[in-house]
């Protein structure tokens, strides 16, 4: 028999209100004593009484006038409490606001699903128990990132819903909505990698650069690693090559996630070849790291262009529209064979706008044609990265990775 059918709902709601008020009260008491604060306000029993008061006043009067009256009276008492604190040169509103939140537990238990009540209580406990971590985050996080987050919320939560989901023109079979959605997904994915690079791995090894840089842009990561490899001795080739291979493996992980968000059917068809490349690449990296030479690592900060700059988003949108036009033109005049040739050529540029335009546009090609085109574009991009690595490093430390990238290109051509 289900628990909610074995006991009256009102009883369960009351028990949850008392239990959660008691738990939060215990954590509130521990918070004050562990931080050396004087317990000016109440105790665990006070929190339970506040929770019960809110529950009773909310349930006995359907008009909620009694509950609002109780809230006003509690607010007045807390105002007096805060006034007394200010006389002692203590101006924190934390305790008073926390008491008001406890008063909300009863109504939440009565009106919201149980999962929301649990989430609410967990949030209150985390606010009490993770004070050092929250302070650390607020001190480390740059003010510019808050502004950037606000910009991202504007372009995703304000601009995107306003864009019409209809084709731009007859020769551009993609909608305004899909173009901007591609900008948001790619920029957001790169932004996560950017934050990890900026705040968690400021002094990073080659392998970390390959791992996180590959999620941001494998081509950019290859350029960075190739330049840094120019300062390595040749017996460090295992370190350098493992980083380059890791960057390419992360590119395929990134592509799978992004393609899944746009077209799960195409993603399903790409899982076998892409997953094979990822597994073999990671296995190769593991072997290289197992027998690598212990040479000094270069731990230098690498400047990564912010992925949420407005100019970057606009440039990506322009590329998206341009590749949509080229794809539509090539398919109309040269068919599937022309599309595959275009995919190979595009691989020597930025492949994300091409792949996403191919997935978002309404072209007269089936998934069986889109899949090899994506594979060809990613494969020829590997050939470009091999050339970058050899030219920038100017030594044999990147030779193994360059050969690996060329083999991936050949395998992609054969598979497609």
Please write the string of helix (H) and strand (E) elements: HHHHHHHHHEEHHHHHHHH
Number of discrete domains = 2
| Gap from first CA to last CA | 57 Å
Unreliable segments of 5+ consecutive residues: 298-303
- Biggest β-sheet: strands ordered side by side in the sheet: 1-2
Q: In percent, how helical is the residue content? A: over 70%
Derived structural class: mainly alpha
Largest sheet: 2 strands, antiparallel
- Beta fraction: under 5%
How many helices? Answer: 17
Write the layout of secondary structure elements.
Elements: H1 3-6, H2 9-34, H3 44-60, H4 65-87, H5 94-103, H6 105-111, H7 114-129, H8 131-140, H9 143-162, E1 167-169, E2 172-175, H10 176-199, H11 206-229, H12 237-262, H13 264-290, H14 310-346, H15 351-360, H16 367-393, H17 399-415
Antiparallel strand pairs: 1-2
Helix pairs in contact: 2-3, 2-6, 2-7, 3-4, 3-6, 4-5, 9-10, 10-11, 10-12, 10-14, 10-15, 11-12, 11-16, 12-13, 12-15, 12-17, 13-16, 14-15, 14-16, 15-16, 16-17
Textual characterization of the structure:
The protein is mostly helical and 416 residues long. It has 2 domains: 3-137, no CATH class; 142-415, no CATH class. The protein is 78% helix and 2% strand. It contains 17 helices and 2 strands. The protein has helices at residues 3-6, 9-34, 44-60, 65-87, 94-103, 105-111, 114-129, 131-140, 143-162, 176-199, 206-229, 237-262, 264-290, 310-346, 351-360, 367-393, 399-415; strands spanning 167-169, 172-175. The chain has a two-stranded antiparallel sheet with strand order 1-2. A hairpin with a 2-residue loop joins β1 (167-169) and β2 (172-175). α10 packs across α11, α11 (206-229) crosses α12 (237-262) and α11 crosses α16 (367-393). The longest helix has 37 residues, at 310-346. 34% of the residues are buried. The model is unreliable at 298-303 (pLDDT under 50).
